[in-house]
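ligand=magnesium ion
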Amino acid sequence: AARSDGRGGVRRYDPGMRAAAEAARELEQELRGALERGEFRLVYQPVVTLADRRVTGFEALLRWASPRLGPVGPDRFVPAAEAAGLIGEIGAWVLREACTTAAAWRRAHPRAGDLTIAVNVSAAQLTSAGLVDQIAVALAESGLPAGALVLEVTETALVRDPEHAAASLTALRALGVRLALDDFGTGYSSLAHLRQFTVDVLKIDRSFVSTMAEGEVMPAIVRGTIDLGRTLGLEVLAEGVEHDHQARLLAEGRCDSAQGYLFARPLERPDAEAVLLEQAACPGAAVPSPRGPRP
Ligand code: C2E
Ligand code: MG
Ligand code: MG
Ligand code: MG
């Protein structure tokens, strides 16, 4: 369609924009019903301690294999699901699936008895009325102790509606779940947020970790985040660790834990379980060498 530009001429829509709008519509259409059709699954990325490289938990990451569109990444479909009002039911499924899996692992692997599972919660989920109930149900149905569940929220999600978000976090803490601030440092006025929103874990964003070059000192923002976390008594976790020198520097700097391709990519469920089995078989061993399918 075209419309008048008000000067008697006709302004045509940019074909690129039209294509983008059509792609967005198609994405939304495919997203509807994707849950019922069983097109979602979770993959699990190990979280390791930097001091001895043992797996203490996993982050659940959502994957969507659309028969028509092929694999679509969460960076694309989560915002689309939010916009289409679908994130509530998808998020509820993620919570149930992640809690059930973690509870089963904790039962099956005695050495994994205090394993944690982290689940990402988007802005729309955080301020939706149903979240606290969804979590309570997921915990009750799976038998997972609340303390084993970590909810990852971003600063961006918190600042979108700070009052509402603060109330949600308080309600979630009352359930006994742990809270992590994801992508820390990428939002703005992080310090102010830490006073307003009480969390348990700071996750240093991958963009800062990736600036850690071989033979150089710790970038100020990474150093600062670790110190801040220690001062506040929080666990500090570095995302996106890809190189050994980064892991060593972070360990020396007393960052607690890490995730990243150096240790493991997000793994399919059986592969994640194999990591637990291997760790149980050789208790002293570090996390197995980098492996697993591409994310
Ligand atoms: P995030 O929570 O910050 O997740 C970290 C992302 O970094 C993941 O991408 C992970 O696969 C990737 N990653 C991990 N280690 C490395 C590394 O060493 N190098 C590099 N280059 N990348 C690494 P993914 O799985 O594509 O997820 C992207 C984002 O989508 C997540 O960012 C999260 O915000 C969102 N997301 C994923 N699953 C869910 C979900 O179940 N619900 C919601 N609401 N959001 C989700
Ligand atoms: Mg995350
Ligand atoms: Mg992150
Ligand atoms: Mg990130």
